[in-house]
Design brief:
With 292 residues, the protein is α/β, with parallel strands linked by helices. The protein has two domains: 122 residues, 2-Layer Sandwich (Nucleotidyltransferase, domain 5); 153 residues, 2-Layer Sandwich (Nucleotidyltransferase, domain 5), CATH 3.30.420.40. The strands form four sheets. The chain has a five-stranded mixed β-sheet with strand order 3-2-1-4-8, sandwiched between helices. A five-stranded mixed β-sheet has the order 11-10-9-14-15, with helices on both faces. Strands 5-6-7 form a three-stranded antiparallel β-sheet. Strand 12 and strand 13 form a beta hairpin. This is Transcriptional regulator. Belongs to the ROK (NagC/XylR) family.
Length: 292
């Protein structure tokens, strides 16, 4: 069966794997993202592709990438946290190296495609995905297709302003990303090193101070969800990212939304994405299929 290499390039990790023509992930792995060195970033990706080619008959490469992606040309005006790729054209670079078709799509749009084709939005023609990770991202699926906007900037919810502090407006990257929750938790607990989201949420159930900082963090997410709901009037909003596995997150978002005076007029389901860590890989493949 025909096989494809899929990449999901995030600010922390580059996830990659082999997927077959039926959309089944056969293998997956990850390595640390080098954000600011183009040569190293490319060397890591090229080595990964060559290793796969040694063991598989590869028919194409599909990539999920943060930032402003021109899906027709492959040009990345901005690549989110991966600054080394700003102004680069990954499609041209890889196609010249391997003589394989390469397709690239924004990571939030890949999540939306995965949810539409085989996830929790299969019945929807209008829905929104919000992904919570190193930053805040997302995808808009409107009137039966991905909405990319003028110059491919639609879905950059992280730029929405949700707080005011010391005469400065703060956006959702600053207030609502999982990075923000980690920073706040570590400062309170005076700890360093790796902390799992599950640990923070577990402590919130027994430590009132941790629960308060989690609820304050969720407040900023809820504001963004509310703003998207009243602006776009979608059928549902899906929350993605690894932290979406925490049941309390979705419960608290919905509790907070009930406090908004006009929510009853705009109320829609706010649910977790079906796909979490594999959404970008699968969505990149679906985009590849669509473009071929």
């Amino acid at each position: 069966m025909t096989k494809y290499i899929v990449f999901d390039c995030g600010g922390t990790k580059i996830k990659h794997g082999i997927i077959n023509a039926n959309g089944e992930l056969l293998t997956k792995d990850a390595y640390k993202t080098v954000r600011d060195n183009l040569a190293v970033f490319l060397d890591n990706m090229l080595l990964t592709i060559r290793n796969y080619q040694q063991n598989h008959d590869i028919a194409g490469i599909a990539i999920s990438m943060p930032g402003y992606v021109d899906i027709d040309t492959g040009y990345l005006e901005r690549a989110g946290a991966i600054t080394a790729l700003d102004g680069q054209n990954m499609k041209q670079l890889l196609e010249a190296e391997f003589s394989l078709p390469v397709e690239i799509e924004n990571d939030g749009n890949c999540v939306a495609l995965a949810e539409k084709i085989s996830g929790n939005a299969q019945e929807c023609q209008n829905f929104v995905c919000m992904t919570i990770g190193t930053g805040i991202g997302g995808g808009l699926y409107l009137n039966g297709d991905i909405y990319r906007g003028y110059r491919y900037r639609a879905g950059e919810y992280g730029a929405m302003l949700t707080a005011f502090h010391s005469e400065c407006m703060l956006d959702m990257h600053v207030t609502a990303s999982f990075s923000k929750l980690l920073f706040t938790y570590k400062a309170y607990k005076k700890v360093q090193g790796h902390v799992e989201g599950a640990q923070i949420f577990a402590e919130a159930m027994t430590d009132t101070a941790v629960k308060e900082l989690v609820d304050q963090w969720i407040q900023h997410i809820s504001r963004g969800v509310y703003n998207l709901a009243v602006t776009l009037n979608p059928e549902k909003i899906l929350i993605g990212g690894g932290v979406s596995a925490q049941t309390y997150l979705l419960e608290e978002i919905n509790r907070q939304l009930e406090k908004y005076e006009l929510w009853q007029a705009f109320k829609i389901p706010v649910e977790p994405c079906h796909y979490r860590n594999d959404a970008g890989l699968l969505g990149a493949f679906y985009h590849f299929q669509k473009m071929q």
